[in-house]
Amino acid sequence: MTTPGRPPTMEDVAAEAGVSRALVSLVMRGSPKVSELRRARVLEAAERLRYRPNAMARSLASSRTMTIGVLLNDLHNPFFADIAGGIEALASELGYQLLLGTGRRHPERERTVVTSFVDYRVDGLILVSPRLDEADLAAAARSIPTVVTGREIDAPEIDTLAIDEPLGVRAVVSYLAGLGHTEILHVTGGDGAGAATRLQCFRATMEAAGLGPGRLIEGDFTEEAGVQAAQAILTRGDLPTAVFAANDLTAAGMMDTFVRAGLRIPADISLVGYDNIYIAALRQLSLTTVDQPRAAMGRQALELLLERIDGRTERVRRLLEPRLIVRDTVGRARSR
Amino acid sequence: MTTPGRPPTMEDVAAEAGVSRALVSLVMRGSPKVSELRRARVLEAAERLRYRPNAMARSLASSRTMTIGVLLNDLHNPFFADIAGGIEALASELGYQLLLGTGRRHPERERTVVTSFVDYRVDGLILVSPRLDEADLAAAARSIPTVVTGREIDAPEIDTLAIDEPLGVRAVVSYLAGLGHTEILHVTGGDGAGAATRLQCFRATMEAAGLGPGRLIEGDFTEEAGVQAAQAILTRGDLPTAVFAANDLTAAGMMDTFVRAGLRIPADISLVGYDNIYIAALRQLSLTTVDQPRAAMGRQALELLLERIDGRTERVRRLLEPRLIVRDTVGRARSR
DNA sequence: TTGAAAGCGCTAACAA
DNA sequence: TTGTTAGCGCTTTCAA
Lengths: 336, 336
Description:
homodimer, alpha/beta, 434 Repressor (Amino-terminal Domain), Rossmann fold, 3 domains, six-stranded parallel β-sheet, 12 helices, 12 strands, elongated, DNA-binding, LacI family transcriptional regulator (chains A, B), HTH_LacI (chains A, B)
């Protein structure tokens, strides 16, 4: 008999249908080796009792959770939200659940989040631009299939999915150089691993183009960082001809600040962002930037992960191609 | 003995520490009634084996999952991402996990997501602007504590948290009316429940202000809807003096389209958004809009939910105050 | 303060 | 095709 108040169990359904619990289990999992008669009877009983299988119990018994842990920096940044959206879209198609956590760029906090994912025995881990060190990442990956995006990792048990950073940065610098820019300033993304790569590429490309090391201002991928960087530039009074911001958010903050200060873009200063989040396309910003296929990144990260879950052991490192999106914030270098 | 490959269980720790499994359980849950000697011994053993409790097993045995199911429309919309961010911040503070799903505005899809949350026996449900009908919502709420945001629900087992819609809309309309606007067009949010309320308030306020029913164009809360609405207005050639868009995204799309068509804002047409997402503050848009405290909404939704989980049974319906944020997209009505 | 034992609701051999 | 029987790893009485 079913006790009202307590949700019905498989046992209740079995009793109601007059069959064994195991048979109900088979039916619930859509096994083909159940007679139509019984299947119908079980389904009816389940319907009658409004039975729903308990995913926890199922997971415990089968040691599969159909759940993926996703670690993001923060949800407010549309860049990460878009990646999460891409993951979510495919996950829901395939019946996977998403356990979501944010690291807020603190390695310790990330460790906590990953640990709790591990506690939940998620089937896999997608770590988006994690700040954790390689040792921690490798440790996690040894117990659970793991894909890292936005950063390259050496550990053989970790798949990585990243943008071809040199390609994107080179596109920016050579585009700027082609328009006569020689004094190019880069506002960095700070201490994040992705930022480091971008910075390094910037330096290398500048040198290769014979433009010297380039000027730098430290940032942290936020709009606020852009505001501060722009203020610093204005205060210093020594304007570069072009600015390459670590991302669109930062570029937006800079543009805002420059415009408030009376500068015209691109007449007085050229500006390039990175990411191509949707605000970049707004006419009011019309920001020249580098497109990163974010939803595709999310989707492919999950694809790689599922391959791992299915048993692949060779490491995969996928590189996605960024594209320069030319809009209206870059002009010819002003003459000095 | 611990089998390498399999993660250690409580049993392994008990053996390693020379105590019973139940005692290990007590220690892991921080029970005070364990002698310091044993506690230390257990903790050491756990450390040695790198033991981590299995959350699934714990949930199954205790029938608490420490997990909250969060249903959003979609992650790409920063409005929802911000709410999710607010929820996540508090959840992580309190040791709760977030199971995340998106409904993409399809009731059937929402039902699927909610069902899978129920399958996981999450401790609570936060449904952000759900499209599901009240019967489905009430059904879910009967088995799991539920908070709905962005929409008012009658069911007594559901707490709701919403913006004081009439207040926000009234602020917009009376502000516009005060500047001499009489032909005000509203671009709606379509079939969403939130949109319906906003629309209804718009109509009521317009009538109350003696401005007639107001003109309407149907939208769906997207930027694209704004583009299309603006194009429709331009094609028709009959410009209202002011447009009140259902949200900032839509307003951004409209502004973009108007500007591309050579209109000046607010000289030729005034524009008001809703939400105050961060793009509204950018100088290049500087959109007059209505601020909705999104992160606070997320946070409070979780607070209400936790009260329910702790046993509160009286219904709570909280109303948050929106604020008109005056920027630069509204001017005096142009003379005809 | 500690331990023994009975579940939590399900899956997964294996037998029938 | 169906049922039986062990678990999955933990919590929770209840005794000791």
